[in-house]
Design brief:
The structure holds 2 protein chains of 2 kinds.
Chain A lengths: L1 E4 L5 H8 L6 E8 L7 E6 L1 H19 L1 E9 L1 E4 L3 E9 L2 H18 L2 E7 L2 E4 L12
Parallel strand pairs in A: 1-4
Antiparallel strand pairs in A: 2-6, 3-5, 3-7, 4-6, 7-8
Helix pairs in contact in A: 2-3
Chain B lengths: L1 E3 L11 E7 L2 H6 L3 E5 L5 H9 L3 H7 L11 E4 L2 E3 L1 H4 L9 E5 L6
Parallel strand pairs in B: 1-3, 2-6
Antiparallel strand pairs in B: 2-3, 4-5, 4-6
The chains are: A alpha+beta, B alpha/beta.
Chain lengths: 139, 107
Amino acid sequence: MIAIQTDDVDIGALIAAAKKQGTGAIVIFDGVVRDDDITEMELEAYVDVAIQELEKIARDASEQFRLLHVDIIHRIGRLLVGENILIIVVSAGHRPEAYAGSRYIIEEIKKGVPIWKKELTKKGGRWVPGEHGHGKGPS
Amino acid sequence: MQRHGNNENNTEECEVTVKIRFFARFRELLGTDIVTDVAPGTIFTSLIASVAKKNPEGYAAIFDETGAFHEFVILMRNGKRIDIADADKTVIADGDEIAVFPPVAGG
């Protein structure tokens, strides 16, 4: 499943669904709202384009690392500290491919998928600067 | 959805209609889903500049003092990235969806 949504997901159900024939390893990445002295985090996406790019990343990862199954679920909207932001589930025959495929997917998402985060604090809000692209934008 | 421009009464058939989408900080400053009619031959950079000028802070977030896009700004036309260097020669077509946004920070 590739999705951008406000709702959380049942990670247990994703793991069960990822156990395709030949699976020997499943790696789950769960990005969580960190308590950086914030009250909430607000996430925004250019949804149509972001979905297309997530689908391409999943296809590329599947080919490059011989993954048997990929789920990428990125949440948007307002999230509290401790809530899931991004869940990536990959399955492969062996752990090196599963770990490498999961790492590839998260790094590619951070490079270019049009999604933004704003940290909300008691004093207001601040957009999280990108790690990639043409330098960092204004805060 | 917003309607932009001063040509609501213009009935020329040759105008083209485009939608401009700003995201993140740019959206906060300039709004989003702005539908506007422009003359045929309008250039990408000119279109964004004309819309951004309605808010000086929004304009300054996207353009530098020479009127060029800040190097960190990301441009898209119909879901495909456009290099800043090409924006000055990209002609807007009818039905285009233009997106302008700051560096991404997902994950």
